[in-house]
Amino acid sequence: MRIAIASDHAATDLKAELRDWLIEEGHEVADLGTNPGESVDYPDYGYKLAEVVAEGTAERGIALCGSGIGISIAVNRNPDVRCALVSEPLSAALAREHNDANVIAMGARLTGGEMARACVTAFLETEFADSRDTGGRHRRRVDKLSKQGS
């Protein structure tokens, strides 16, 4: 799978750990930055990640910052992207199954490497429920997420 990953300065260590692990697992990973030692603004990296996922260059994305909150808000500014802030595997799986999330966000100050890998695994292995022909109830709701005020 093609996966893009981006972080601010607070999450460069977790980003590197996840990037290297994903490559070992056989995924193609685009590291969108930032690099250790640089103080940056998380919205810049959230917007960059959202653009790559929205245009289809990456199938999924992983957004990281200190808490995961700020970067998830930035990613969700793009109407073609659905980013869910997750902290454990069940929320990551449900984000895919019910909300067709194509990006997850996590906080490096709140989520350790082992838990982050478990979240990513659940996110990558879970299908959107409506791809299994369940009557379309989730698709109808997800479609409304891109239509402001509808």
UniProtKB/TrEMBL annotation:
An annotated Gene Ontology molecular function: intramolecular oxidoreductase activity, interconverting aldoses and ketoses
Active-site residues annotated for this sequence: C65 (proton acceptor), H98 (proton donor)
The domain of life is: Bacteria
* Gene3D superfamilies noted in UniProt: Sugar-phosphate isomerase, RpiB/LacA/LacB (3.40.1400.10)
Ordered alphabetically, the record's keywords are:
Isomerase
Q: Does the keyword Isomerase apply?
A: yes
Record-listed D-ribulose 5-phosphate binding positions: D8, H9, G66, S67, G68, I69, G70, N99, R109, R137, R141
Q: Which GO terms describe its biological process?
A: carbohydrate metabolic process
Q: Which residues form a coiled coil?
A: none
* Family label: Belongs to the LacAB/RpiB family.
- Do you know which NCBIfam families this protein is assigned to? PRK05571.1 (NF004051), rpiB (TIGR01120), rpiB_lacA_lacB (TIGR00689)
Descriptive protein name: Ribose 5-phosphate isomerase
Organism whose genome encodes this protein: Aurantiacibacter marinus
